[in-house]
Design goal:
The structure is a homodimer.
Chain A (H helix, E strand, L loop, with lengths): L2 H28 L6 H8 L3 H7 L3 H24 L5 H17 L2 H9 L6 H32 L18 H13 L13 H17 L24
Helix pairs in contact in A: 1-2, 1-4, 1-6, 4-5, 4-6, 4-7, 5-7, 5-9, 7-8
Chain lengths: ~240, ~240
Amino acid sequence: MTATVKADLSRYDQKLELILRASARIFAEKSYHSTSMRDISRATGVSLAGLYHYCKSKEELLFLIQDHCFGRVLQRLEERLQSESDPIARLRIFIDNHLSFFAANMAEMKVLSHEAESLGGDLHEHVSTRKRQYTRRARKIISEVQQAAVASQHPPRRNGQLKKNARPVDTTVATYALFGMMNWIYNWYDPRGKLSVSQLVDNITRLFLSGFLSRAEHATVQEGSEQAGMVNIWRSA
Amino acid sequence: MTATVKADLSRYDQKLELILRASARIFAEKSYHSTSMRDISRATGVSLAGLYHYCKSKEELLFLIQDHCFGRVLQRLEERLQSESDPIARLRIFIDNHLSFFAANMAEMKVLSHEAESLGGDLHEHVSTRKRQYTRRARKIISEVQQAAVASQHPPRRNGQLKKNARPVDTTVATYALFGMMNWIYNWYDPRGKLSVSQLVDNITRLFLSGFLSRAEHATVQEGSEQAGMVNIWRSA
């Protein structure tokens, strides 16, 4: 590849990134369905004909945003995990990687969350595969923390059993609870506000790790004391 | 009010609820903007003219869904809190109330989360006020748990200070982290699956309460060990 071709590619990539970034912002503001290519043309200053030089359709823009996000966050995670073997340190890296990435890309985060179903066919399948891969990675990191915690409790207590109240939190619930507390930030967090990204990471990490590793009795639910059950809003009026 | 007028009102309310419930399901499936009154007419079997007897516009339907949800969940919460004064028990009630309500109304939950910005003017302001009221209530319940925990730690440790690592989790982060882990369930939880609503409530309660009340050192972030910071997806390529 000659230097000129490289420079052209780079200019092309830069322009595409500008278009994707602006599209993510507009999709986040007014939803994918309410956004037209004309809106994107207006926001980027790129003509309609110019836009179609970079993507075949509005759907391809949405796909590129989603694919790029999952690709980048997963790639950075793998790079950072390589040098660390301690399970708790690996979980910290996962949380830090996800939050620091999405705190800097909140429009993209909202688009990932709200427009997951707006892609169809192969594009949808491709992004879903990436997302499953990322979720599996998180779940494995969380499982390993749990296994290490159980291992460090050996030898077992005198009666040979964990106390009933000391049961660990379900790994599936823990995985999605962690994604929930991290992904919800686009609803409230302002990266330019008084809580810095590193403070956000610190607080979420402590909240999740303590909760996940704790066996404290105060935190157990007394059976029968709660009114858990299905409460259908419409039929209860 | 005569018995006949009452019966008519009730029939009216039942029909309106049927329309709102079907609308929430369609808005959740294909987004508010992509849904037409014709879609709602088709799903409910109510003619277009009939629909306009129950609401002035599609926007009013969206408003009624959101207003009804926040109204009901807040009303049930206040009723259940009346008989309880212990801060931890009150937090359990809050979590149970929110999750059991929304596990039974997941389409409504998705609409509340995705279509908050689709209302304009007074309707938007009205729902936002409800939402702020509900968030303030949650924050107060969480603060009271923290205050009770601090009070129970008196007298202070020998050196008169809490250890640096023993600092509590920020109340704002804790409040939104709890909403995040609860509200995210519409992305993964199946109320008809093997994890019952009461098991979901139990796991989320233990995860949050242990995390929030714990002062365990393993869960603190060692300063300087993390790479927290802003990582802009597009400019880092």
